[in-house]
Design brief:
Helices cover 41% and strands 24% of the residues. By secondary structure, it is of the alpha/beta class. The strands form 3 sheets. An 8-stranded mixed β-sheet has the order 5-8-2-1-11-13-14-12, sandwiched between helices. Strands 6-7-10-9 form a 4-stranded mixed β-sheet, with helices on one face. The chain has a two-stranded antiparallel sheet with strand order 3-4.
Length: 298
C-alpha cells in the first residue's frame, strides 16, 4: 500500500503541473541566475536540471547570469581593490578586463553543465550580435567607470538561437556606440531582455525567500502582488537593500508587457519547478493588473 500511495503521489504532482505546462508551452522565460545557487555546486546542478525540464516540456528559457562574487575574488587575487558606490562596482579599465574575463569563464562553465544533461546551449556576451547596447551609467551623478545602462536590446540573435532549439546563456557585458565594453548589473540586463523578448515570465533567483510584508516576520511572505500593490508596498518604507531595485525592475518589466515576474530563493532545491508547477509556489509572483491569479487554489 505504501508503494501504491507513493506512486499516486507522484501522479498527483504531474497532474498539478499540467495546467501550468499547457499555459506556458512555447513561451519565452528569462531566468536571472545569481546568488548562492551560482556558488554551491549541488545547487548549481539542481538549477541546470530544472532548466532542462522546463525546456523539455516546451518552455523557451533564456539564462542571464551574474558573477559578482567571482569578480571580487579574482580582483583580489591580482591585487586590485574593489570599490562600490551606491551598490555599484567602480569599474576602471583594469577591473573591466577582469570582469569580462571572469564572466565569460562563468558563462562557459554553465554552458558545459547544460550540455552534460543533454541541452543545446550557447554562451553569449551582450556584445555578440549587439544584443546589449549601453550608455555610461552614473551613480548619483558620479562617473564610476565602465558601468553600463542598457539603452537597446537587439533580439535577433536570441530569437535565432531559440528558434533552432538552443538555450542562450547571457553574460551581462555590453558595448556602447564606440564599441567599448561595459559591465551591466545582471538584474537590469535580465529585465531589459525580458521586455525586448516580450517574455511571459521573468525570474530572479536570489538569496531571499521573496517579498515580506514584515521583513522580521517569516510568515508574512507575499505569494502574489499586482502592480498597484507592489507600488503601494514600495511607498510603505518596508522595502530595503537589494529588494528595492528588484521590485522596481519587476514593475517596469510588467508595464512593458512581461506577464509575470517571480522572486525566488535559489538556495531551495528545485526552486524553479516548485514555483512554476505547484499551486502554492514558494516565492513571490508579481502579475499585471489584467492577469488572472497564478495559483489555482486561490
Amino acid at each position: 500500500m505504501d508503494t501504491m500511495e507513493m506512486w499516486l503521489e507522484k501522479a498527483n504532482v504531474l497532474i498539478e503541473a499540467l495546467p501550468y505546462i499547457q499555459r506556458f508551452h512555447g513561451k519565452t522565460i528569462i531566468v536571472k541566475y545569481g546568488g548562492s545557487a551560482m556558488v554551491d555546486h549541488e545547487l548549481k546542478k539542481n538549477v541546470i536540471r530544472d532548466v532542462a525540464l522546463l525546456k523539455l516540456v516546451g518552455f523557451r528559457p533564456i539564462i542571464v547570469h551574474g558573477g559578482g562574487k567571482e569578480i571580487t575574488k579574482w580582483i583580489g587575487k591580482i591585487g586590485l581593490e574593489t570599490q562600490f558606490v551606491n551598490g555599484l562596482r567602480v569599474t576602471d579599465k583594469d577591473t573591466m578586463e577582469v570582469a569580462e574575463m571572469v564572466l565569460n569563464r562563468v558563462n562557459k562553465g554553465l554552458v558545459s553543465m547544460m550540455e552534460k544533461v543533454g541541452l543545446k546551449a550557447v554562451g553569449v556576451s551582450g556584445k555578440d550580435g549587439t544584443v546589449l547596447r549601453v550608455e555610461k551609467k552614473l551613480s548619483g551623478g558620479r562617473d564610476i567607470g565602465y558601468v553600463g545602462e542598457v539603452k537597446e536590446v537587439n533580439p535577433l540573435l536570441l530569437n535565432t538561437l531559440l528558434d533552432n532549439d538552443f538555450i542562450p546563456v547571457i553574460c551581462p557585458i555590453g558595448s556602447d556606440d564606440s564599441y567599448h565594453s561595459y559591465n551591466i548589473n545582471a538584474d537590469d540586463a535580465a529585465c531589459a531582455i525580458a521586455k525586448a523578448m516580450k517574455a511571459s515570465k521573468l525570474v530572479f533567483l536570489t538569496d531571499i525567500e521573496g517579498v515580506y510584508r514584515d521583513p522580521a516576520d517569516k510568515s508574512s511572505l507575499i505569494s502574489e502582488m499586482t502592480i498597484p500593490e507592489a507600488q503601494e508596498f514600495l511607498k510603505s518604507g518596508n522595502v530595503g537593500g537589494g529588494m528595492l531595485p528588484k521590485l522596481q525592475n519587476c514593475i517596469e518589466a510588467i508595464q512593458s508587457g512581461v506577464s509575470r515576474v517571480h522572486i525566488l530563493d535559489g538556495r531551495i532545491e528545485h526552486a524553479l519547478l516548485l514555483e512554476f508547477f505547484t499551486n502554492k509556489g514558494i516565492g513571490t509572483a508579481i502579475i499585471g493588473d489584467e492577469e488572472e491569479k497564478y495559483y489555482a487554489d486561490k
